[in-house]
Amino acid sequence: NTDSVLRANSAVTDYWKTGHSYIKRRVAELGAVAGFEKSGHFFFNPPVGRGYDDGLVTAIAICQMLDRSPGSSMADLYRALPLTFGTPTMSSHCADDVKYGVVERVVADFQAMKRDGTVFAGQKIADLITVNGARVVAEDGTWGLVRASSNKPELVVVVESPVSSQRRGEMFEAVDTVLRRS
To answer: How far is residue 107's CA from residue 135's CA, in Å, rounded to a whole number?
Structure first.
């Protein structure tokens, strides 16, 4: 879970719409040091980069990380990160003319549950991010994401738990239940 690592290093995170252009623009608007997009785009502003997606700058940043950790391999640095239990990105068919309405209903359901203190996936909802669909976060950090695909007739679902594969499964089942009634 990168959020816990970032918080431990006093970084502020900002969630935004998925997509290369959205993230590039958001990084520039905020003057953020860096921005990352799940499909593999890495944006670095000064002093690391110049604000655009640059694989070479990313490689140099990784080399600098390794230089600051003498005696550690990239595998060592990776193993030092907290273990998480995530799903691959799952996509279920949903017609283009319906998918945004489904997501609106999912968001409304999650907002009502959070407001009412409803137990969801065995815990209360600690956070709800609705920038691009709904990312619902339980008290233990386990989260589920539902959003409409911007370029396919699909809903995108991702679930992750910093706790266990069992918690990941509980979150998936809870998200699936909300989706089925939406």
So the answer is: 9
Q: Which spans in 31-147 are helix H?
A: 55-67, 74-79, 96-116
Q: What is the largest CA-CA distance in the chain?
A: 55
- Claim to verify: residue 92 and residue 140 sit in the same structural domain: yes
3-state DSSP call for residue 82?
coil
Question: Based on the domain organization, do 108 and 37 belong to the same domain?
Answer: no
Owning domain of residue 12: 2-79
Q: What would the pLDDT profile of 63-74 be if each residue is shown by its tens digit?
A: 999 999 999 999
List pLDDT tens digits, range 8-32: 888 888 888 888 888 888 988 998 9
Give the angle 166-179-20 at the CA atoms, nearest 5°: 85
Q: In a 10 Å sphere around its CB, with 0-12 CB exposed, 13-18 middle and 19+ buried, how is residue 45 labelled?
A: middle
Q: Copy the structure tokens of residue 142.
A: 């386990």
C-alpha span between 52 and 160 (Å, rounded)? 28
Q: Is the pLDDT of residue 175 over 70?
A: yes
Closest CA to 182 of 95, 121, 114, 104: 104
